[in-house]
Amino acid sequence: MTRPGTSAFALATVLFFLSGALGLGYEIVWIRKAALVVGASQIALSTVLTAFFLGLGLGSFFVGRRRISRRRSPLFVYGLFEVAVGVFALFFPELFRGLEAAYGALYPFFEGSGAGLFALRFTLLFLLFLPPTFFLGGTLPLLLDGLVEKDASVGSRTSLLYGLNILGAVAGVLVTSYFTIPGAGMNGSSRLFGVGNLAIGVVAIAAFRNRAPLHATETPAIVPRFFLGAAFASGFIAIGYQVAWARYFSLFNTGTVYLTAVLLAVYLLALGMGSLGLSPLLKAGLRPLRVLCVAQALAPILALNTLEAWRAAEYRYSIEAQPGVSPPVAIDTLEIGLPPGNPHYFRFASEDLDAIFFAPFFQVGLVIFLPVLLLGTGLPSIIAAASRSSESLRSASGRLVFWNTLGSSAGGFAVGYGCIPWLGLNGTLLVLAAGSLGLGAAAAFRDRSESARLDAPPGRRERRLDPMPSPAGGRRWPHPALLALLAAGLLASLLFLRREDVTPYTIKFHGYGRDPEMGYDPDAKPAPRPGHMPLTQVVEGPLTTSFLFENDESARIGSGNVCLAVAYKKSFSSQAVQGHVPVLFYPGTGLPKRCLGICLGSGQSFGALLLYPIESLDVVDISSEIVDLSLRSFAPYQHRLGQDSRVKVHLDDGRHFVDRAPDGSYDVISMEPPPPTAEGVASLYSVEFYREARRILREGGVFMQWLPLYRVTPHDACGIIRTQADVFPETFVVKVFGDDFMVVSYLAKPKIPLDAIRERVKVFRTERLLEGQRWSPYSKHDIASFEGVLALLLMGPEDVRRLEAPPPYDDDRQILSYTSGDRRLLRRYEGPALSRLSFAALELSRVEDLKDYFDPPLSAEVAAEVTVERAASLYAFGLQDPRALDAELAAMKASSDPVDRVRHALNLAAAFDASLAKKKAFEFLGEACATAQAAPGAATPEVLAAARRIARNRLVAFEGEVARGIAELEARFGRQPIISALREELTAFRERERARRAPYWLE
Q1: What would the CATH number be for the domain defined by 571-877?
Q2: Average pLDDT of 773-791?
Q3: Cα dist. 455→155, 474, 571, 765 in Å?
Q4: Is 329 left (phi over 0), alpha (psi -120 to 50) or beta?
Q5: Which stretches does DSSP call E strand in 425-504?
Q6: What does pTM read for this prediction?
Q7: Per-residue pLDDT reduced to its tens digit, 609-655
Q8: How far apart are CA 827 and CA 318, in angstroms?
Q9: What's domain 220-309+370-493's superfamily in CATH?
Q10: 830 in helix, strand or coil?
Q11: d(Cα 523, Cα 542) in Å, to the nearest integer?
């Protein structure tokens, strides 16, 4: 047999890099998969992570203590471990289905017991993840034992291998989050990674099957308790910082899977670079404990003083404003404003890559990279200091990795559930800084004792493993430079303590408070503008940070950077209105008895149900902080939701609650979840969830899902509606108020008694401050009127089924969390501009086509009245009065004057274009072109100006439709003045877009 040389080392490091990539890919896939069963709550996810880390630690510990046959190289055993992981991954989908069945069977025995459910979840997940994590955890000790031959190379090779494995993990995070899950799904990703692990294992087995072990004998390591404690503390501090930074970024960023992936990737990248950077330092002879002390002393200085460094890479969209208009008005094409008009819009790789990767990468990196770079030296330094002998390296590293893994698990749990809720983010950062300084001080004193040992006579040096050898002629204190660094870290912590608390400051000036409506300075100067809405309360809980803004006009609560609910004190609320919808359109003459509300928000929607004689209302929300804030701050607007004996509040994940509810439990299910693209929310918009909702809905019941058009793209809006309609064929789209829409579904074709609606409207009219209110200034009827209620219906089942939509959203790929064909529109235009675009993707049903869903069917007179009322209520979306359109069409057909006929055609084109019905608008542009062809003088300057306005209207979003429309007109009529005007606008826009994209690398 031959010993492994340079080529063997190179091959093993490449395999270990790939193994790190696959390991993090598994972690992301398996955690997201498990959250579908045990719920997406923070406790459930922490349970998954704890089980995952514990398995890694046990594998490392076992391999470190277990003797390996000296006939085979540990590298050969490493290959067997990789094969074992690959086999598990291939069968993971089937094994996971077994876990689902076991959890469903055992859940009734533990329901109602928080401790019992925690124990059940932990046990099942631990048993599921133990085999693969055990083998993954054993790979580092095996590689160290198989690749480190000389005592002098223990530290350098340990840090090199550890760093390369972490860099592989960076690649795994990014590839999994950006490509494999959205492309192959979670099950497909697991199987794909399994094939990768099998390939790694087979290569290792084939390459190292004839290799001799480096060490003929094993020397079990006696690792002093100091190093075990240091490994634990290092893991605790490193993961604690990660949890704290994640909470900090959530205060001014809407959480998405991409932000989560980038945060983890940058964190791992810095850890890996720190470990790699340590390798040459140790090879040059630096003492590992001194490196540990310096790193732990500098880390809090940087961590506490780089929190706002992300502002150097701040990235925000803004629409170009029309020149010379005050107040600023967006240009009609919706083009992006460029620097210097928008200093926060930089151009680097491409607009999409900048938004979903480079901008968050730079922002996160500016905050965390340097401190994590220092933290990354922790575990390799400790292993190097504790194990100077290559023969004992596997044993020592196994035990140290075990304790480091335990510390990581404990740090994530303690910081998330202890420090942040009790001390807040500000106090947590100070506690972690103190921990870093404490570990650094301990390392400095340990280094002093090690120096004393080296200075002692030869006979004394054999006592190297004593817990704390006495100094023998050496210094009694650590090196002055180390003490100075520790003092600097302490001073930085004291100065941070004197600053304004980081959480409210960030919410006010960088987070939701930065919205101009809140009145805070958009440039984040620490002083609010006149008329601002004060931040009155902040609650930092284990799940999220919640806030309350309140003044005399309204109260707003939210979590992170998202406002979840608004209560207007001097006017009615759309959230209260939508609470009445499932009762107003409840089929049959009876009323619902048992109701379920998911995601509390302001509580106004669920409180509205209490105005009716329901028997019970279950309210489910994942956040105790939001529940407390809502019930306490919005009590005057909730119809005694917090005091009504019919109401029971459940602190649970909505998906988990529905999955465990009995069949046929509810007459009404009403949902107001966060935006669909927010992290963890996609599972409430999947076909699997809708099937479970259908299962627990009683015959004749109503299922209602919130659809905020200002937070979904046209593609996603149609996808959400169609996914729900795939499970509930009888699905309607209902407008509530402003940009809030609801998707309402039934198990069978409903028959809604008209007389029942008239009676229910009487209750609806009692809603707070609703009496006398109308949908728009152009409405003829009150909101709480028979006609006003019927005007809510926009789309019926037939038109819903005809929507052009992507395939149904499912749990496996979770496309809503990742990407879609037009997601750039959400990044650019979230708000009113986006709602107009998403509304235009919907095809309104004719009221006459909905008449048979009522008992008796709607008469022609009522249908005509409702048609006009509905158009008036949708005036904000550009919908025109149908009577005016009919009159304009009749006038066009009757006109014999070409100029007059062209004017009527352009008026009709502009009317349809106002609602962004581009196809219909181009039909009437064709009418204008046909007339102008026979009478060239009809293309007056006013006509050309009107045509240009139509071409420019939302051209960014409708460039394709406009280009096709112009091409069709040119094919029919040639280059007429009207068509030339349209073409000139399109060409000028494309030239501007080319100039805007020119600085990008990839566009």
Answers
A1: 3.40.50.150
A2: 94
A3: 22, 7, 81, 89
A4: beta
A5: none
A6: 0.91
A7: 999 999 999 999 988 889 999 999 999 999 999 999 999 999 888 99
A8: 10
A9: MFS general substrate transporter like domains (1.20.1250.20)
A10: coil
A11: 30
